[in-house]
Amino acid sequence: MQIDSNYVTKILADLVRINSINPTFSDGSTNEREIAEYTADALDQLGMEVSTHEPEPNRMSVVGHLPGAGPGPTLMLYAHMDTVGVDGMTDPFAAIVRGGRLYGRGSYDMKGGLAACIGAAKALSHAGAQLEGDVLVTAVADEEVASIGMSEVLLHHSADAAIVTEPTDLQVCLAHKGFCWIEVETEGRAAHGSRFEEGIDANMRMGRFLAELDHLERALRSSPQHRLVGPPSLHAGVLRGGTGASIYAARCHLEIERRTIPGESEAEAVAEVQDIVQRLTQADPTFKATVRPLLTREPFEATPDASIVRTVASATAEVLHREPAYVGISYWMDAALLAAAGVATVVIGPAGAGAHADDEWVEMDSVVQLADILARAAVAYCSAAA
After folding, report:
1. What 3-state class would DSSP assign to 38?
2. Which of 186, 261, 265 is nearest to 230 (CA)?
């Protein structure tokens, strides 16, 4: 069983040349349909059973199914197809190869992972590997925003384990942070700027809240750290208030992002913010504010001795001729959704740089190595004894 490096390189270049910007970053003018159709065709040509899922128009995800010969466990190889925007990039879809690196939007985050998944599927299919369990290659939409793709796929497909191919520099990732977006709105009373006895300034009251929030932020960063992902944190992402310089602001709106570590919950994050509001209300009865969670994605942590973790670590050691490092990642990924659905999950992806940046690239050798790791892991895991 060998990885066709030329095939993997071609697949990756083709993927990068397709504009798959998440529509949130393009005012709705782009989607994942073209790249999904390309991926579906590539998997079909490998003899896989292909299904597509479209929870919203043009927001398509693809699952390729390589059936096993027996009752062995099912393994999912995962990547997402959408990217962030291309503002500031000079030639985002050129897929230029230079010095062993392939440049372009999505090359690192995470079309390199998708190319490796497809390359692994080709190796398994063409070698006629007699696996007991099934292999699924899953390419989803919308990971960069709300994960509607992965959420929809999980309604139709299940697996015993999953390998998420987000970039990790070929290190084995066992944990990542979650996040909670929290809205805070302070309430004032609109009045002409000359009538201080009538007006209540919602912006001033938000200032009091922000001062207390700053204390909380510093306390979080100095709290006990998770061994792999570090401490929790927060920041004030969006602030809007008032309608004019000569009018007391009736409302001020704040959106907070609270980054959570494994073991923390939305309820705890919201309670911290609500506690600030309660203290400020007790100190001044005219202080009024509401707190509301907007979107929460849970953190992820894998069990180090899980079968899929040990399998991936062993395959990585075979390919790299050294034991892999175990790491945590600060950003969120769909691994958390898989784990929440009861799928034993681990993360490993290629090397590179520039996720969400103007200069993005992936190291081509690492994409081929990743494909080899995935194929070996599939052979080892998808057996009756796994």
Report:
1. helix
2. 261
Is 3.30.70.360 the CATH number for 178-297?
yes
Q: Which CATH number fits domain 5-176+300-381: 4.10.520.10, 3.30.70.1350, 3.30.1460.30, 3.40.630.10?
A: 3.40.630.10
As a whole number of angstroms, the distance between CA 17 and CA 19 comes to 6
Residue 117's φ and ψ, nearest 5 degrees, are: -60, -45
For the stretch 206-217, pLDDT in tens is 999 999 999 999
β pairing state of 161-164 and 75-80: parallel
- pLDDT of residue 325 exceeding 50, the answer is yes
Q: Where are the domains positioned within the chain?
A: 5-176+300-381, 178-297
DSSP code per residue over 221-274: HTSPPBTTTB--EEEEEEEEE-S-TTB--SEEEEEEEEEE-TT--HHHHHHHHH
Q: How much is the pTM?
A: 0.94
Residues in the chain: 386
Contacts of 312 (CB under 8 A, 6+ apart): 163, 172, 346, 348, 373, 377
Asked if 252 and 242 touch (Cβ cutoff 8 Å), the reply is yes
